[in-house]
Design the sequence.
């Protein structure tokens, strides 16, 4: 594989071009259940393993009560998904055997498990949706009971997706390498080759997100696309849905129109906070005021004065207060502080234009003749846009009227800021650059992306490193940037979590086994 510059290249589709000959990677997957399109069969595996459903109501498709004594061991290799589960049907004696999991009941036949003796010990077929409507799975002359988990969820799917850690590989063990690791070693793929391939995979991940923003651009403006993406990122896991709804209720054009350009920044911030807290349904009522300290009472009164004159313009465009999640969230990440951060960002940059501000911030670093230094300076400038969002009431509070923090805390920390740059700013602006044919901007964005240092580990990066590298030291030497970590995510999404693939049908494994890989 030929080497390429890490800072001056445009984003490349080479990853998908290399894999396309092997099982057609790059073709869009048709997801049978739209709301689950981001997780596929992984969702069903997590539901089953974590028993995230109403166990008291769990019934087979023929109406028998199911008691799960043990869900079994999560299997990362070939064969049924869960080994040695223990299940009781009605009042019968418990049975021990394997559980096979699919997004759809029809996937069992589609994946050709019926003729595989490894599946002869399956005692239950757990699916998300029974698209066939049959009570049993007919296989190898047996009738295997089925359960459809979508009938037994305790909350709607969006809430389930927020609550489950879908990125957590449940069976990661040290040295749990995949066949891809052996193939890479057998073909002499060295650390340089793997690192370059992960760079290309990381580019593919950005391009995939950029295409989503390009779709948004077809019916919106660059500022609204960027604003929507930033609001989504501020929601993190538990509050992404209400933050997206808030971005729709209060578009950036409304904020720009309602924020007087001739007022000082602090007054614009207060007006933006009043509008966003009001539309979010988080503005406290009169009853809550009786136990407040003077600072909180004065602050809330200022918010009401900002919201009152304009609330009629939004009519029913409001977020219901009850959808916001405060549980299972660190207090410094409460949605109240995130809404305050959104208000400060828009108050500062709405009139100048969010996308124009980003472009000008990147261009300020353009004078350095050394590409790597220029990219790093641009990255610092972009991060400073967010790290500068601090101060005010929320610098030392987490909820209205809550005790003050021991010391002032930024509304957005360095790690969240880096994540927003990587997952929102870069792909959204790549979409803008490609829409406008601005290669100079795209090159700068690629340089910034390549300059992002390695971020904290999570379950997916640990899992993929264990699958690809027999030596943990090699993983540390190769996966040195956020771009390569994103490459791990791309491989994981395309192959390891895809309900379309198994290791035996993995395009990456097929590529790794080739004697030569043309570039």
Sequence:
């Amino acid at each position: 594989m030929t080497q390429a510059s890490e800072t001056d290249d445009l984003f490349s589709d080479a990853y998908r071009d290399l894999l396309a000959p092997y099982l057609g990677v790059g073709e869009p997957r048709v997801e049978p259940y739209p709301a689950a399109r981001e997780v596929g069969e992984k969702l069903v595996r997590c539901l089953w393993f974590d028993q995230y459903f109403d166990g008291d109501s769990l019934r087979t498709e023929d109406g028998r009560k199911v008691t799960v004594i043990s869900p079994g061991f999560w299997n990362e290799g070939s064969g049924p998904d869960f080994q040695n589960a223990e299940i009781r049907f009605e009042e019968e004696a418990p049975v021990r055997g394997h559980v096979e999991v699919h997004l759809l009941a029809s996937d069992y036949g589609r994946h050709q498990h019926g003729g595989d003796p490894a599946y002869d010990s399956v005692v239950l077929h757990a699916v998300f949706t029974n698209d066939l409507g049959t009570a049993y799975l007919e296989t190898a002359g047996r009738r295997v009971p089925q359960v459809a988990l979508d009938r037994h969820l305790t909350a709607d799917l969006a809430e389930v997706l927020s609550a489950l850690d879908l990125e957590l590989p449940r069976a990661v063990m040290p040295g749990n390498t995949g066949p891809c690791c052996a193939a890479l070693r057998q073909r002499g793929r060295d650390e340089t080759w793997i690192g370059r391939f992960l760079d290309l995979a990381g580019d593919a991940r950005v391009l995939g997100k950029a295409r989503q923003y390009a779709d948004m651009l077809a019916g919106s403006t660059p500022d609204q696309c960027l604003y929507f993406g930033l609001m989504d990122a501020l929601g993190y896991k538990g509050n992404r849905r209400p933050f997206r709804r808030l971005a729709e209720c209060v578009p950036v054009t409304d904020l720009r129109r309602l924020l007087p350009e001739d007022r000082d920044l602090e007054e614009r911030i207060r007006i933006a906070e009043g509008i966003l807290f009001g539309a979010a349904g988080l503005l406290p009522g009169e009853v809550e005021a009786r136990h407040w300290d003077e600072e909180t009472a004065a602050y809330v009164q200022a918010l009401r004065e900002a919201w009152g004159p304009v609330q009629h313009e939004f009519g029913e465009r409001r977020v219901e207060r009850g959808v916001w999640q405060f549980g299972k969230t660190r207090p410094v990440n409460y949605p109240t502080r995130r809404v305050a951060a959104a208000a400060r960002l828009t108050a500062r940059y709405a009139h100048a234009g969010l996308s124009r501000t980003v472009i000008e911030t990147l261009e300020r670093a353009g004078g350095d003749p050394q590409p790597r230094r220029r990219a790093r300076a641009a990255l610092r400038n972009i991060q400073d846009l967010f790290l500068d969002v601090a101060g005010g009431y929320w610098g030392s509070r987490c909820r209205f009227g809550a005790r003050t923090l021991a010391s002032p805390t930024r509304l957005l920390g360095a790690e969240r800021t880096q994540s927003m740059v990587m997952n929102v700013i870069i792909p959204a602006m790549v979409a803008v650059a490609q829409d406008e044919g601005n290669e100079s901007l795209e090159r700068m964005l690629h340089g910034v992306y390549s300059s992002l240092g390695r971020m904290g580990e999570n379950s997916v990066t640990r899992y993929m490193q264990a699958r690809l590298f027999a030596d943990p030291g090699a993983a540390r030497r190769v996966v040195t940037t956020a771009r390569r970590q994103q490459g791990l995510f791309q491989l994981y999404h395309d192959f390891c979590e895809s309900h379309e693939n198994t290791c035996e049908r993995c395009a990456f494994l097929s590529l790794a086994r080739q004697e030569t890989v043309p570039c």
In short: Residues 181 and 468 are 5 Å apart (CA to CA). Residues 40-163 form one domain.
